What does this fold into?
Amino acid sequence: MPKQLLIGSANQEKARELAELLHGLPWEVKSLADFPPVPEPEEDGVTFEENAVKKARYYSERFGIACVADDSGLETDALGGAPGVYSARYAGLPADYDRNNAKLLKELGDTPWHERTARFVCCAAFVEPGGEPHVEYGTVEGHIATACFGSNGFGYDPLFVPNGHDRTFGEMPPEKKHSLSHRGEAFRKMRTYLEGLA
It folds into this structure.
């Protein structure tokens, strides 16, 4: 019988994306919907790793099950790395993708294309009950578009054009995005690690 692995994310779009990235693993992958509702952990870390580990450890201890979680965000060079770890709540709470994108576009204003460089960063964390965390990182470099394009993905995907491409993540089919994205990179590494534990 395969070991169980919980995806520790209350964000339904992200949980669905992580399930796609972990599909086919020799683990029985579960979501938070399979368990009684619990309060979400407060993401008060100052780094992506702190938040990812905190989420994975919280849900692992809460439900007594191995858990994988991630924290990810967008770093924009012209804005000194903002929104960074505050990406999900950049325009305030409750988190809202449209407001976050609108704020980012407003902050960048008429910044020229060559200065609209940015990267997505993902830290994936795995924790078993009582165990030490294992983390993997992924990054993808690109630029911020001058308007939103595409309705695929979530978050800042309609604004982010990865280097070497002329379409945003929001315009790409999921499998194309996964092959390029920060989350795809981090979870390909995590897959290899988890396959070794199964």
User: Anything to note?
Assistant: Residues 3-197 form a domain with the Maf protein fold (CATH 3.90.950.10). The longest strand covers residues 66-76. The two ends are 10 Å apart (CA to CA). The longest helix spans residues 48-63.
